[in-house]
Amino acid sequence: MKRLNIAVDGDLLERTMQVSGERTYAAAITKAMKELVRVSDLKSAIEAMRAKKDFFYPGYFEQIRPNSWYALEKKAKAERSSKPSNKATRGRRAR
Count of domains in the chain? Predict the structure, then answer.
C-alpha cells in the first residue's frame, strides 16, 4: 500500500463518498480508481473485439441463431453465388 499526501477538491470528495457509499476518504478514492481502471480495460476489450473481423469461430452465429436476419442473409447470399448463371455474356446471344 502506498501512502500519499494529496490536495483534492473537497466537494468532489464528498460527492464521491456519497455516490460510492464508502465511509472513509481512502476507501472512496480507492473505489473510484478501481472503477476508472475497470472502465478503461472494458473499453480496450471492446475495441479489440471490434478490430477482429469475426470474433468467434466462423459459423458460430449461424449455429447459435440460425433464424436470425444475419444468418438468413448470409445463407441466401451463399445460395445466390453457388447457382449457375443462365444469362448470356454481354454482347453474345445464348445458343
Answer: 2
As given in the structure block, the three cell numbers for residue 58 are 466462423
- Reported as a single tens digit per residue, the pLDDT across 62-73 is 788 888 887 888
Which residues lie below 8 Å from residue 74, measured CB to CB, with a gap of 6+?
A: 62
Whole-prediction pTM: 0.55
CA–CA gap between residue 14 and residue 28 (Å, rounded): 9
Residue 55 CB contacts under 8 Å (≥ 6 apart), including other chains: 49
Query: Do 39 and 48 contact (CB within 8 A), yes or no?
Result: no
Domain of 29? 8-52
Residues 6+ apart with CB under 8 A from 75: 62
